[in-house]
Amino acid sequence: MRDMLCGSVDETLVGTSVTVCGWVARRREHGEHLAFVDLRDRSGVVQVVVDGSVDVRSEYVIKVTGTVTARPEGTVNAALPTGKVEITNCTVEILNAAEAPPFQLDDRNDIDEQVRLKYRYLDLRRSQMQNNLRLRAKVLRAVRAAMDRQGFCEIETPLLWAPTPEGAREFVVPSRLHPGDFYVLPQSPQIAKQLTMVGGFDRYYQVARCLRDEDLRADRQFEFTQLDIEASFVTQDDVMRFISEAVLDAAEAATGERPSTIESMTWTDAQDRYGVDKPDLRFGMTLQNVSAAFAGTDVKAFSAPCVKAIRVRGGADFTRSRLDALTEQAKGLGAKGLAWFRVTTDGLDSPLERFLSDAEKLAIRAVDGAEIGDLILMVADDFATASKVLGQIRLAIGAPPVSQGPHRYVWVTEFPMFEGLDEDGNPMAAHHPFTMPHPDDFDLMETDPLKVRSQAYDLVLNGWELGSGSVRIHRSDIQARVFRSLGISDEEAENRFGFLLGAFRYGAPPHAGFAFGVDRLVAIFAGEENIREVIAFPKTQSGSDLMTGAPKQITERQIRDLRIKIQPKA
RNA sequence: GGACCUGUGGUGCAGCUCGGAGUGCACGCCGCCCUGUCACGGCGGAGGUCGCGGGUUCAAAUCCCGUCAGGUCCGCCA
To answer: Residues 6 or more apart from A295 whose CB is under 8 A from it?
Structure first.
């Protein structure tokens, strides 16, 4: 139907006849003898010159045949890639008329996301969405190629899976052939991919859709896409190399530049210096431990096992109301308060200044090489709280927009095996219950489980958790010890994961794996704060699809066939 | 489950503190004019349940209560 894309019409084609198809982006009429039509397709825009009037409106779909012509002297448009040429002596065929669109597609105004999502098919015509989704395709191509090159086999795993009541809430699918029984949609192909290891596929990968029925966020949708991998006879370092290769290839494909390194730090380090398990390395303002200087303090506010501080460059001009707001935020995060000190030519300016000893003042003055005009913020509490609170304050003050700054990748290793206690007082798995404990910490499992490190690791980019992985337990004696630590009885384990444990009795190879979120990676490459911008048809925060109206009621007939009953609203 | 922000012709905003006629701006839309524009220009026009419901008031886009929708966050996301 066409022999050329709008964006590829250029001066090398002058004099030739071309046929292009697309949408009317804009029309400029100059009386009955001349009109210009900007014709848009996925590749860009080209100017069509019509002698006489032409009855086309915005978003009409047209086919234009004409001659590529160099634009007359003085009418070249430098802002347009095709601005040196135009198509003249045209015949215009209207392939389809269009109603006036509900919003302008020209990026002139911001458009309410509600409207964009209702008419997503129109929103997708805009260059932002075209670019984002094509970038996503590039990333997917790159990661598939990287895994293929490294000898991985792409294997599809079921979407209809068995309920395993653990972790994220699952989407449930009623069975028609087995009334009263249910499938669930997988929150990840975790168990399936481990079974491919038992099945002798020593390198598995999948671009896998995962589904979790948990509340949505800017970086979370019900359904999201992961590059999911698993490999046998490998170490943690091998897995990190496989994933690095895929991520760095993706970065190169997306940005044209291959990042030189992926840094690495332990989980404890990340907590200590950044107060989070997903540190944003684009900016400094790291957490400074000043506990020693306040060990014997008389100041009540600082009498705590851990005192931490951050230096805010040039922060001395923060207004009192901003400092109050930060204090409120700190309290909301569990701190008793937030101490602030302006570094001035006269020393320290703060309500707490007069209570401090000279040594304490010197310690504060020296935080992170503070200079006059800076602000020092401090939290005193236990290590975990002080770190967490100051880590969040650091982000609130310093985190640049997603679109800004370099891409700083970092592996976070040696995650704790267990985190916190459940209602029964049992430790909870930090990653998942098939994670191999750190070999040096095996003996702590029964005595001090919360101190046990695991062989689990995360990949973090600019403060976003891209993904996580671990070395898995392949021996039933270790698995039994972990289940025991988690308070899972043999019977319960058999009931929940019986088919997996059964499989492991038939010669499970040592194996390890990883999965990272493609949506998040693409969003960062695209400079988007929100993964909906890199998903063709996303849902709102309340889980609605504004275009289709989903979720919706099903017919009485469907309900009857499934033998389910709808309870009235409480 | 909770906190905060937003909702005004088709689109984006202003108006809301301090109540006084649906007032304004930009874009779009419709009609007419315009032979070199490119965010073309000129003239004219249409288009409104101020999200919805209730309350206060002589009078509510504006104040109060509730509710719905969208967003950001907390909880949640092994």
So the answer is: none
* Domain shared by A294 and A333, yes or no: yes
CATH of the domain at A461: 3.30.930.10
Report the protein residue whose CA lies nearest the C1' of nucleotide B26: A109
A72 CA → B12 C1’, Å = 36
In a domain, A563, yes or no: no
* Token pair of A161 as six digits: 């899976």
Chain A residues 447-506 within 7 Å (CB) of strand B: none
**C-beta contacts of A291-296 below 8 A and 24+ residues apart:** A293/A359, A293/A360, A293/A363, A294/A360, A294/A363, A294/A380
Tens of pLDDT along A327-370? Answer: 888 888 888 889 999 999 999 999 999 999 999 999 999 999 99
- Same domain? A552 vs A413: yes
Determine if strand B comes within 7 Å of the CB of A295: no
Task: For this complex, say whether ipTM is above 0.90.
Answer: yes
A318 CA to B24 C1', in Å?
37
Instruction: Report residues 1-30 of A contacting strand B, contact meaning Cβ closer than 7 Å.
Output: 26, 28-30
**How many angstroms separate the CA atoms of A278 and A267, rounded?**
9
Q: How far is the C-alpha of A437 from the C-alpha of A452, rounded, in Å? A: 7
**pLDDT for position A196:** 97
- Identify which of A300, A275, A298, A299 has the alpha carbon closest to the alpha carbon of residue A286: A275
pLDDT digits (tens, 9 = 90+) for A273-311: 999 999 999 999 999 999 999 998 999 999 999 999 999
pLDDT band at residue A568 under the 50/70/90 scheme: confident
Residue A541 contacts strand B, CB under 7 A: yes
- Interacting residues of A185 by C-beta distance below 8 A, sequence separation 6+: A159, A160, A161, A170, A171, A172, A173, A211
Across the range A84-110, mean pLDDT stands at 92
Bond into A551 cis (ω within 30): yes
**Which nucleotide is closest to A79, CA to C1'?**
B38
Enter the tokens of residue A38: 């900007």
CATH code of residue A63: 2.40.50.140
- The CATH number that applies at residue A358 is 3.30.1360.30
Domain count across chain A: 3
In angstroms, how far is B11 C1' from A141 CA?
36
Nucleotide B12 C1' to residue A566 CA (A):
43
Does an H or E element contain A95, and which?
A: strand A85-96
Q: Which of A519, A397, A393 lies closest to A464 in space, CA to CA?
A: A519
